[in-house]
Design brief:
four-stranded antiparallel sheet; 207 residues; elongated; five-stranded mixed sheet; 2 domains; 4 helices
Amino acid sequence: MAKVWALIRFVVLYELRLWAALFRWIARRPVPVEPGTLRFGYVGAIKLILGAFIAVSAVEIPILHLMIPWEPVRVALLALGVYGLFWMFGLAATMSVYPHLTTPDGLRIRNSITLDLPLDWAAVESITVRRRSMPPGGQTQLEDGVLSLGMASQTSVDVRLTEPAVVPVRKTRGEPVREIRFHADDPEALVAAARTAMDQALATKNR
């Protein structure tokens, strides 16, 4: 029963955050961040896929409305279709509203509202640009201490940690990771910003 309630709580919170993100996206009100923080998107990798799903759903709604003769079923499917269409816009909104962040204190790797992985600069040994295609096995993969957080089966940034660490990602099941790979639409800019922030953090520490 506890697992059921935990699942219900997750679904409710997910829906609330999704609709809040859609509101922010439409109103152009980004989530406030601390001074010195830079945002980096990752939705570009799946923009075409999301656009295709949204377009198909938008076309499907009036077609089903005209084809189905039973009024109650037609109304129910219309409501479900409209909800699904806005839900997909909301999913796209979460990826725009919650981008990767480089902050004065560290890096935050994100994926919509399902992943928010903070890394202190002190825990980062190096960060580099390297574009990779992931093998079959899902968008989150763990192999030999390397955690890949893909987007459209690709990563573009490698983060090597100073020492193996346990990170709050379910796929790891508590196994330490020594390297994290993820995707950013502009990995060169993200890596440059990260290195600058790391240098500034080190300079501040050595004062």
